[in-house]
Amino acid sequence: MSLSPSHKEQIQAVRAAIETRLAHLLPIDSAAPPRLRDCLTHTLLAPGKRFRPLLTCLIASDLGARQNGVIDVACAGEMVHTASLILDDLPCMDDAPLRRNRASAHVAFDESTAILSAVELLSRAFGVIARADDIAPQTRTVLSSMLARTVGANGLIAGQLADLSNTDSEASVEDIERLNQLKTGALFDFAVLAAGQMAGSDKQTTDALADFSHQLGLAFQLLDDVKDVMMSEADAEKTTGRDVGKATLVALTGNAASLERLRGYLADAKSALSRAGLGDGAVIAAMDVQFSFANRAAETMGHNNGNG
Amino acid sequence: MSLSPSHKEQIQAVRAAIETRLAHLLPIDSAAPPRLRDCLTHTLLAPGKRFRPLLTCLIASDLGARQNGVIDVACAGEMVHTASLILDDLPCMDDAPLRRNRASAHVAFDESTAILSAVELLSRAFGVIARADDIAPQTRTVLSSMLARTVGANGLIAGQLADLSNTDSEASVEDIERLNQLKTGALFDFAVLAAGQMAGSDKQTTDALADFSHQLGLAFQLLDDVKDVMMSEADAEKTTGRDVGKATLVALTGNAASLERLRGYLADAKSALSRAGLGDGAVIAAMDVQFSFANRAAETMGHNNGNG
Prior knowledge:
Two copies of one chain form a homodimer. By secondary structure, the first copy, chain A, is mostly helical. Helices cover 72% and strands 1% of the residues of chain A. In chain A, helix 1 crosses helix 3 (51-62), helix 1 crosses helix 4 (69-88) and helix 3 packs across helix 9 (173-199).
């Protein structure tokens, strides 16, 4: 799977723009408490792949959205994502000391600073959308409502609560996919559908984008679960082995079947992307980069099986 | 200080409408996790005076705002207020077991449910504003941006962080007033200025409203600090005595001087309210109800002093 030079350059340029913009959107020069600023920098500006905001920017661009505010809306999604990671890692949640190859926020600082930083990222995300002033006000209110639903009682929060009590050994594939949709899919839906909203997509395109983000979210969560089992912490750049005892697709069906399922999700995602008219753009290239581990792992397994 | 029958009825009617609307705005009938719904009900729907949303509704009404969405924006402020209380009470913050005469959220449920409920209330508040669809979209984006600043690194969060490290015995009256403005004033600013925004107030009125909310926020925080010292937990309906060792105006200047200062704030607030053209409406009546403790305490003190 080769990356065309132009797509590679586009992805690199958009990633760099996202990094710059994220730093700009933090209250770095304000009267904000230094400890809060340090924790926001530690968490939001930790090196990351920026896959979600990259999706928003690439899809919006490919669909013809030209507002300067697109990148801010993309960054708002990344802020909420980072807030959710800070909260997930807390002692009362997953109690994970490592994130993005750094000490988790509550370890590097303390619990209260971590919680308040998450709240700041969350509310700032809504503020950033509200102030993206070359996007039509009506569109901004739709985006804000979408983001609230993404976070809310039928999104990330429901997913986190369900995950905390996830020790159900009777869970089916469908049960686990439903949990994964809440935990991970909700933010992918925002990243993808916000792009469609800003581009003024028609219903057919919006439906295809919704299919795409649904499959992509499932693929992403499954990749995360596979990494939890198959990768060292150094490679994963976060605490691994945390899923032991949880009902995941990997635990239920094994590594090989999980990788096969993952390839199915990705194929369905690409097919939906084609229906949205984006079948040969940089989005596909960005997916291939993001999911390269899954392809490598599948090849290694096939190789091992062949020799074993 | 007597309450006119018509103002009393108006205040009761608005309070009742706020209670009904708050309950309606929770995800009670949705697929939200039952534990989350229970915690949201426990916290947001605990009997409270609803002073902030009452202010929003009364001021908006007196200024001529007629949108149905006014009450939703008022409720959004109350959601953020409740979220801040849940977080303030956490073990890693003030570690307070009692709130609004009930067990605090993390005691009645657990820490993770408490934190996620606060996050849900916060993001739902932004969603409620975004969907208040008889308010002009441009106004909704302004309100959303105002709310983000209220929560943010120069508002509630900065106040909470400063309060957590508040053991500065050298703090001056000005230092403490600055902290009180962040901790308490920010949400009063939102409650009051949102009303002006929805009514389309001119600059002169907006400036007077800003003065009003500033003085009122200082008065409210000082009342809270006085209650912490002078009231039993049963009367305060929350954990008291938590301010011991903190730099408060009560600790710095004593009870009698604090009550005198409080009366000064209230007088300045009422004067600003008059400049906003609201000097004889239900807002004044609502203030008198809210601050009746201060008046009673001042009378008792004067009485004791006279006999002592």
